[in-house]
Amino acid sequence: MTSHIVGYPRIGPKRELKFALESFWEGKSSAEELKQVAADLRFSIWKQMAEVGIKYIPSNTFSYYDHVLDTTAMLGAVPPRYGWNGGEIGFDVYFSMARGNASVPAMEMTKWFDTNYHYIVPELGPDVKFSYASHKAVEEYKEAKALGLDTVPVLIGPLSYLLLSKPAKGVDKSFSLLSLVEKIVPIYKEVVAELKAAGATWIQFDEPSLVLDLEALQLQTFTNAYSELESSFSGVNILIETYFADVPIQTYKALTSLKNVAGFGFDLVRGTRTLNFLKSGFPSDKYLFAGVVDGRNIWANDLAASLCILQVLEGIVGKDKVVVSTSCSLLHTAVDLVNETKLDKEIKSWLAFAAQKVVEVNALARALVGQKDQAFFASNATSHASRRSSPRVRNENVQRAVVALKDSDHRRATSVSARLAAQQKKLNLPILPTTTIGSFPQTIGLRKVRREYKAKKISEYDYVNAMKEEISKVVKLQEELGIDVLVHGEPERNDMVEYFGEQLSGFAFTVNGWVQSYGSRCVKPPIIYGDVSRPRAMTVFWSSTAQSMTRRPMKGMLTGPVTILNWSFVRNDQNRHETCYQIALAIRDEVEDLERAGINIIQIDEAALREGLPLRKSEQPFYLEWAVQSFRITNCGVKNTTQIHTHMCYSNFNDIINAIINMDADVITIENSRSDEKLLSVFHEGVKYEAGIGPGVYDIHSPRIPSTEELADRINKMLAVLDNRVLWINPDCGLKTRKYSEVEPALCNMVAAAKLMRTQL
Ligand code: GLN
Ligand code: ZN
C-alpha cells in the first residue's frame, strides 16, 4: 500500500510564514526567529503526513520565497549584480534576488505555468560559473531524518529549470539556454550523491515542462540529461514527476523509455489522455505515481470514482506498482479546512484543502489493498450526493439562459469604427484622450472604514457617506488635473473579484483559504459552488453617484467574466465555459443597468484573460473562443453610443492578438510600459486594428514619477505605429497600491504630455 504527495503549501495554515517573513524584512525579528517559524512549519507538515500514513513524504518543497530561486541558489547561478562571492548564500543575497535591495532591483518574476503562483526567473548566459552552492535539499532531508522521518527530496529537474530560465541581459542572440545542460548536470550529480550519502532512498525530479509541446531539440535535451545523470542513479530510486496536463505522446514514449528511473508521476486530473497512453504501454518494472487527487482545486475527491480508476491502472501496470498521489503539488490549493469557521456546513462538507487531500490520498491507497475505511468512503459518498442534489447549486433560470445562448455569435450589430464615430459625437473627447484604469490610492483610512463597516462597527449611513466623500475627492482631483474620462476610484472595493463575488449568488468565501501567489503574498480565491446569478445591481449606485458629481464622462467599472473565473476556485461538476457564460450573463445585466442609469462609458476589466490560456497549443483555440465570447456576451446589447472599454494586465499578447481584436471592445487599455517594443511590434506587422487603444505610458508598480518629456517621448513612439485617432493616454494599471504623493505629480505630467502632443499633431 503506497501513497505519495507531490508537494505541500509552505505558507502555513494561518500564513505563519508570510508574517514571519514580513517581520524579518522590516527588521522587527531576527533571522533565527524566521528560521524557527520555518522549521516548525516543516515539522508540522511532515508529522501530519506521517501520522496519516503517507509513505512518500516530500521534503525540500519548503521555500523562503520560491523553489525556482532555491534551484538557482543550488546551482550557484546568482547574477553578478547581487555581489555574491561564493560560499553560503545567505538571506541577504537570497532576498536581494527575490525582492531587490536599495541599490539593485529584483530579478524578474513570472507565472508558474498556468497557475497563479509566480517564480523568480533564472538569468543565464554562457559565462555563468555553476557550482553546488546551496545544500538546502540535503539539509531538509537530514532535518526530517533527525525527526525520524525518511522523506523524498524534491528537485526541479534540469530540463524544466532551463526552460523556465531566460538569457541574461546582453547575452548574444545566438546563445541557447539548453546548451547549459552539460554544465548543470554535473551539479545535479553532486546533489544526488550527497542525498544518497545522507540515506535518501528516493529522489523526485519535477519536470512539469514535459507537458508542454516540446520541440525535438528540447526533448532530446531531456533524454540526454537523464542518460547523463543515470550513472549517479544507482542505489537510489528516481521518480520523474509531471503535472498540469498530460504529456504529449512522443514525450510519454521518451520518458517511459528511461532505464535507470524507478517511477513516473502523471497528473490524472487534467491529463485526460494519460490513461490511453498507459494502456498502450508502460514498462513492467516501473512504478506509476497516479495523481488522482486534484492539487489545483478545493473540492473533495470523488473517492469511489478514483478507486475505479486506480483499479483499472492496477490492471495495466500491476498490483504492486501503483502509488496513489496528488495531481501536482498541493501548493496551489488552500491549506487546511479545519480553520474555516465561517463556511456554511453543507458547502464545507463538499471541500478538501491540502490537509484533507493528504487524508484522501491515504484512504485511496488503503482501499486498494483491501483496507477500505468504510465510514470515510460512505461520508464522502454522502457529501457528493448532497452536492449533486442541493438546490443551492442549481438555478433552473440560469441553466435555461445559458442553453438559450447557444448558436448565436453575440456581437454588437455595428462595426467598431461606426460605433466610435457615434460615441465621439456624444462624448466629444479631445484627440489623445486621457484616462486612468480605475482604482485610486487605497489609504489606511479607507481600508479602516471598509473593515469597520464589514464588522458592523459603523452604520451603513456613515459608510456610504465616507465613500461618497472619497469619490468626490477623487473626482475633483481628476478634474483639476484635466483628465478627460474620469473614474470613481473604487474605494468600496477590497479586491476586483471578491467585490463582485460577494454580490453574486453561487459564490462562497473562506477566512483562511489562502494560496501563495509569490513570496509572502497570498490570494484568497472565492469558491464558485453553484449557478451564478445577480440578485441586484452591484455598482450602479456608486457609478451614478460619481457621474452626478461631474459633467465629464464617468466610466462604469466592472470585472469581466473570464477574470472572475480565472481568479476563483471553479466548480468541477460542469464545464468551465458554462460557468463562465453564467458569469457573463450576470455581468451583462449590470452593464445594461449602468447604461440605463446614464453611464456612457463602461470598462469591463479582463486582467486575467491570458492566464487561463491552456498550456498545450491544441487546446488554446477552444479556450479563446469561449473566453472572447463570454466577454462579448456582457456588452453585445448596448447602444452604439455606449463605449465599452476593457483593460488587460499584461503586454505579452502578441500570440493572442486576434482573440483580443475579436473581443470587439471600443477601447482597450493595456499594461505596456515595461515592454514597449514587444507590444508595439504587433502593429508594425500590419495587424488591422481599428478600435481605441491605450498602451500604459508609465509603470504603476514603481514609485518613480515619470517626467513630462519622458512621457511625451513615449507617446511619440506610439504615434509612430498607431493612428492618432485611436490612441488613448493612460497609466499601466490601477493606482490603488500607490500613494497620492506619487499619483498626483505622475498624472499631472501625463496630462501635460498629452496636451503637448496634441499641439504637435
Ligand atoms: N480597475 C482595476 C483597478 O484599477 C483593474 C485592476 C487590474 O487590472 N488588476 O484597480
Ligand atoms: Zn491592470
TrEMBL record:
It comes from the Eukaryota. Pathway: Amino-acid biosynthesis; L-methionine biosynthesis via de novo pathway; L-methionine from L-homocysteine (MetE route): step 1/1. L-methionine binds at residues 437-439, 490, 605. It catalyses: 5-methyltetrahydropteroyltri-L-glutamate + L-homocysteine = tetrahydropteroyltri-L-glutamate + L-methionine. 5-methyltetrahydropteroyltri-L-glutamate binds at residues 18, 116, 521-522, 567. The active site is at 701 (proton donor). Zn(2+) binds at residues 647, 649, 671, 733. Signal peptide: none annotated. It holds the Pfam family Meth_synt_2. Residues 432-755 form the Cobalamin-independent methionine synthase MetE C-terminal/archaeal domain. Its EC number is 2.1.1.14. One of its GO terms (biological process) is methylation. Its cofactor is Zn(2+). Keywords: Amino-acid biosynthesis, Metal-binding, Methionine biosynthesis, Methyltransferase, Transferase, Zinc. This is 5-methyltetrahydropteroyltriglutamate--homocysteine S-methyltransferase. The gene is metE.
